[in-house]
Amino acid sequence: MPENKIPQVTAKRLPLYYRYLEKLHAIGKQRISSADLSDVLHIDPATIRRDFSYLGELGKKGYGYNVTYLLQFLRDFLKQDEVTNVVLVGVGNLGTALLKYNFYRSHNTKIVAGFDKDPNKVGKDVDDIPVYSMDRLSEVIKLHNVEVAILTVPLNAAQSTAEFLISEGIRGILNFTPARLSVPPNVRIHNIDLTIELQTLIYFLKNFPEDDLGENGKETLTKEES
Ligand SMILES: NC(=O)c1ccc[n+]([C@@H]2O[C@H](COP(=O)([O-])OP(=O)(O)OC[C@H]3O[C@@H](n4cnc5c(N)ncnc54)[C@H](O)[C@@H]3O)[C@@H](O)[C@H]2O)c1
After folding, report:
1. Where are the alpha helices (DSSP H) in the chain?
2. Domain 3-76 identical in fold to domain 84-192
3. Beta strand pairing call for 59-60 and 64-66
């Protein structure tokens, strides 16, 4: 698997391809062209071809991609058969919404528990996901083999909570707080900042109102920030 050579922007699009290919496979479709994928996913066909070229020889030019083969390839590549358990810390407004959402479009990620320091939140399930006190974190992440956490605590609690999570073995944090976290180099942080996304959108609308949007017009949060 050429996993290490794949650019992050491509890696982020692979689950989109995977989900759509699963649908095609379910209805018995055997071949798909990059143009057809482009129409549905709103990703430029050249980008799709480039993405797939990182994965090796998957299709002949002008002949399209074999859906079953591509799906199997992406399943292995994305390890879709393995479920990754995730915890969420900070079951407030945003945390509760994310627990309810629970990444239902992905078969391979699952929030197994929420954590909060507020005793009023503890012990109350959110859509069948249990909410524990922080002192249960160590036990729960060991039990479910968790290495990824979603952070939705207030800004002033973000750094200390991240440090606690890391000390308990968390290696990846999806950070919804505005804090820019300082973490050891072996820990990966992905920042999701809706304010920046909204401001960027408004900036482009104001400054380039007549632009042919091209690929920029199709940007989503899956775009790599860096
Ligand atoms: N990224 C975004 O686009 C976006 C959008 C909205 C909110 N936010 C951020 O997400 C965070 C949560 O926002 P919210 O509106 O849900 O806030 P909230 O106050 O409703 O929820 C925060 C929760 O964290 C808990 N908490 C506080 N300190 C804690 C600690 N040390 N350990 C464990 N739990 C703790 C609180 O008890 C509360 O339940 C904030 O940092 C906010 O700025 C981000």
Report:
1. 8-26, 34-41, 45-53, 67-78, 93-101, 137-143, 155-167, 194-207
2. no
3. antiparallel
pTM: 0.75
Nearest CA to ligand 1 atom 15: 93
Which residue ranges make up each domain of the chain? 3-76, 84-192
CA distances from 21 to 7, 17, 218 (A): 21, 6, 20
Which ligand 1 atom sits closest to the C-alpha of 176? 1
161 lines ligand 1 (CB under 6 A): yes
What ipTM was predicted for this assembly? 0.97
Which of 89, 91, 94 for a ligand 1 pocket mutation test, highest count of atoms within 8 Å of Cβ? 94
For helices 8-26 and 45-53, the axis angle rounded to 10 degrees is 100
pLDDT tens for 39-70 read: 999 999 999 988 888 877 766 666 788 898 88
Name the stretches of the chain with pLDDT < 70.
Answer: 1-4, 58-62, 80, 104-107, 210-226
Tokens of 132: 């524990």
